[in-house]
Amino acid sequence: MQLIDWSEEIESYNLSTEFSIHKADTKLWGAYCSVYYNMLYNGFFREEGYQKANRNAFWIYKGEHRIGGVRLSPNRIYHLFFIPPFNEKLEVVKLLKQILLQWSDRTTAIKTFEILPDQVHLFARAGFWPDEFRCRWMQRPTDQFDVSFADHLRIESPRIEENETGTKRFINEDEIGECDYSSFAGSIEAVRRKKFNFEDFRPTEDPNYTNDLLMQASTLVYDKQSGKLVANCRLCLQDNYAAIYSIGVIPSFRGQGLATKMLKRAMTVIKDEYPILRLYVMEGNAAESVYLNLGFVPGVQEVQNMYIPAL
Q: 253-261: long-range contacts (C-beta < 8 A, 24 or more apart)?
């Protein structure tokens, strides 16, 4: 589908006779976003900036006055912020929606992601539909723990191989996929991610977002008697910070504290390189109590997605 008036080379665009957007300098735009996006959220990630948002970052102007910023491209709007004391927020969101309707492929949805509480009502009033899932980041300092697993279990770390085209994969990706399928199939998290069969759980993406230390801190738990992989915890990079990509225990091995031990092992291995470990959890996920009991602090709750439906 041909998109009207959209180009990666856009330097400025009039939203109305009063409002316009202008391509932003990445460093300065990131500094403003880190202050004005949402202080509860930014305070939670206070050591992190937004300078990597170097594509499609725009300033929003009213006349000659800079009043906010946004990341905008066909079918996507993200990191919208306003600079006080500007208060005509709904009018601007509606104008941004109108340009998105013009720029976007309407055979697919127009989306905004991880919407924070102070903007949910703005997007809703502008015609974006909220989905049913609520999520939040959690984090805690890494530390040294004395971790031991039962004698009937064998502990390994996953390994990655890279082919001649640069594609990375877990050497035992089928085992990991089977373990994840047994751990998550039918869960609220699987429904959110639209994972319904074994192939959906094959771990093809996360090997590209990790490093050697995080692989060493990741854990595969095998039952010695059967040789079966019964639990696993995989770490990834979230920007430049350590995060849990996935953690799961098959039903027949739950109640043995394996999730807690895998998290403690991860924090122990990475503590000299990464002072904080993060994870992203959905409201209603039973694992949230494990994280809270380990001292993980919850951040601002987010609506996972809001969208204008495809036509």
A: 253/221, 253/223, 256/150, 258/149, 258/221, 258/230, 258/231, 259/231, 259/233, 259/287, 259/290, 260/290, 260/293, 260/294, 261/147, 261/148, 261/149
- ∠ CA 208-109-238, nearest 5°, is 25
Statement to judge: residues 272 and 251 lie in one domain:
yes
Residue 157 and residue 287 share a domain: yes
Residue 157 has what DSSP assignment? -
pLDDT of the residue at 117 = 93
Q: What stretches in the chain show pLDDT beneath 50? A: none
Kindly report the pTM of this predicted structure.
0.87
Do 52 and 194 lie in one domain? The reply is no
Instruction: Extract the tokens encoding 191.
Output: 């429904």
Cβ-based neighbour number of residue 272 at 10 Å: 10
- By the 10 Å C-beta count (0-12 exposed, 13-18 middle, 19+ buried), 280 is classed as middle
- Report the alpha-carbon distance of residue 101 to residue 284 in Å, rounded: 34
SS (H, E, C) 210-244: CCHHHHHHCEEEEECCCCCEEEEEEEEEECCEEEE
pLDDT at 2: 54
Q: What is the pLDDT of residue 210?
A: 93
Domain containing residue 125: CATH number: 3.40.630.30
Task: Tell me whether strands 276-282 and 241-249 are parallel, antiparallel or unpaired.
Answer: parallel
Write out the residue range of the structural domain in which residue 189 sits: 139-303
pLDDT at 310: 95
**Residues 146, 282: one domain?**
yes
Exposure of 67 by Cβ count < 10 A (0-12 exposed, 13-18 middle, 19+ buried)? buried
Amino acid 1: pLDDT: 54
Question: Would you state the structure tokens that stand for residue 130, as one six-digit string?
Answer: 């909220």
